Amino acid sequence: MNFDRGRVRIDMHDEQAFSELVEPYHRELQLHCYRMLGSLQDAEDAVQETLVSAWRGIERFQEKSSLRAWLYRIATNRCLNMIRDHRRRPSGRLPFVPPPPSRTDEVTWLEPYPDDLLPDTEPEPESRYELKEAVGLAFITALQRLPVTQRTVLVLRDVLGFKSSEVANMLDTTEATVNSALQRARSALATRMPAARERAPVPDSPEERKLAEEFADAFELGDMDRVVSLLSEDAWVTMPPEPLEYQGHAAIAEFLAHGQAFRPPGARVRLVPTRANAAPAFGHYMEQEPGSGIALGLGVFALVLDGHRIARVTRFGSPELLPRFGLPLDLRLD
Description:
The structure is a single chain. Helices cover 43% and strands 19% of the residues. By secondary structure, it is an alpha+beta fold. A hairpin with a 5-residue loop joins strand 4 and strand 5 (244-247). The termini are far apart.
């Protein structure tokens, strides 16, 4: 089969030609799978399966739809299969006994998404969200709590800007079903997303960097009172894969006090700046033997900012996430 791409005619039996054809869509497909699944590892697996399936099924591709829509159809159905298979990580275990949480959360599989992997694309005309909002942790978390059909339709329609007819074709259903699910998803998302009080600082702006640096400095020094002072009154601390969530200064202060008790006396802590989900993040390191000069990686902290305060601190306690952000598994402090 030969595939016309503008004036370039590509032999689709040529694997190299196929790779060059789909490469421009790789990052956006991976981000799509992340929105659907909430996990970077699962998203990477889903994209690889998508591209293998597309290569094997290229003979069945019909140019009645665009190549982009065809790839998204495959990727979406791969994600739906993974959700049905319940491929979810088990809950973690904190190294200390925590206080009673404000609530527990079922979304324990959530992982952060490195900014370095975000696609350099503009939102489609039909999209209702800018990239920064549609990749934010608050948005991704809210998506995971939607019923899977509602989540799928909302992502395809409101985030990616596909028409209802295209979404219906991808999901082998009717436009009426798509539109009904979309209305329910929009209503549910409006109740699950935190109310916006102020605009968050511009990404990587001096204001954003200052707030992130203050958080890192206070946390490294073990000054948890100062950490709490940087939080909004109704801030949340969450920690996937642990289901525990703490809200408000009093509950968060109690939780942080328990965590400090686990910290070996004199052990140094470092937070190495990075970015996740279009917001400040840090690789988290701590000396296991005080004075050794070697800090082991413990995971990733991700912040959600709201105006001049931090609205959410998420601790991802998985050291294996660090290399995804270009960070080492251990750090020499001297």
